[in-house]
């Protein structure tokens, strides 16, 4: 029996520093995410203690980022309808794990209207029409 030759993935699929940008880093000997990079957190506006998180591959970069932020003492809003994974079970598992770690699971619409604060906001009517 002959074995099939190993295929080398195309350059676009290989790991590169640009394609692997997560806000957290892994220790080579650890399976748990390390804290977010301090330089990234220093760029946050003063007095902001809650971070709203959305993104692709919920079960990898998004989840690791959220766990790192929570461990660093930040409140995190996980926008459930704005995170995704290739497979639905990965997204659901990541959402549940983020919730267990302390993230508040919200929706995009919840975030929009909480940011507006009141129906008196000048953009309330326009945004209400967008989400209908």
Task: Walk me through this protein's architecture.
α2 packs parallel to α3. The protein is 38% helix and 20% strand. The chain has a domain at 34-107: Rossmann fold, CATH 3.40.50. It is globular and about 35 Å long. The strands form 2 sheets. It has a 3-stranded parallel sheet. Strands 1-2 form a two-stranded antiparallel sheet. α3 links the parallel β4 and β5. The protein has helices at 38-42, 58-71, 88-101, 108-116, 124-131, and strands at residues 24-26, 33-36, 50-56, 75-84, 104-106. The chain is built from 5 helices and 5 strands. With 132 residues, the chain is α/β, with parallel strands linked by helices. 19% of the residues are buried.
| CATH architecture tag of the domain at 34-107 | 3-Layer(aba) Sandwich
CATH class category name of the domain at 34-107: Alpha Beta
Number of helices: 5
| Sheet of most strands | 3 strands, parallel
- The arrangement of helices and strands along the chain is EEHEHEHEHH
Distance between the termini: 60 Å
State the helical fraction: 25-40%
Q: Can you tell me the CATH topology of the domain at 34-107? A: Rossmann fold
Beta-strand percent range: 15-25%
Structure summary:
The protein is of the alpha/beta class and 132 residues long.
Structural descriptors:
alpha/beta, about 130 residues, Rossmann fold, three-stranded parallel β-sheet, single chain, two-stranded antiparallel ribbon
């Amino acid at each position: 029996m002959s074995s099939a030759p190993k295929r080398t993935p195309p350059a676009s699929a290989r790991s590169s520093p640009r394609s692997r940008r997560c806000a957290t880093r892994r220790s080579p000997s650890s399976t748990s995410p390390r804290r977010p990079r301090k330089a990234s957190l220093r760029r946050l506006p003063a007095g902001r203690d809650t971070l709203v998180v959305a993104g692709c591959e919920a079960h990898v970069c998004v989840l690791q980022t959220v766990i790192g932020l929570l461990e660093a003492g930040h409140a995190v809003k996980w926008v459930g309808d704005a995170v995704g994974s290739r497979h639905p079970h990965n997204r659901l598992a990541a959402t549940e794990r983020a919730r267990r770690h302390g993230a508040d699971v919200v929706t995009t619409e919840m975030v929009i209207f909480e940011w507006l604060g009141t129906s008196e906001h000048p953009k309330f009517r326009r945004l209400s029409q967008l989400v209908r």
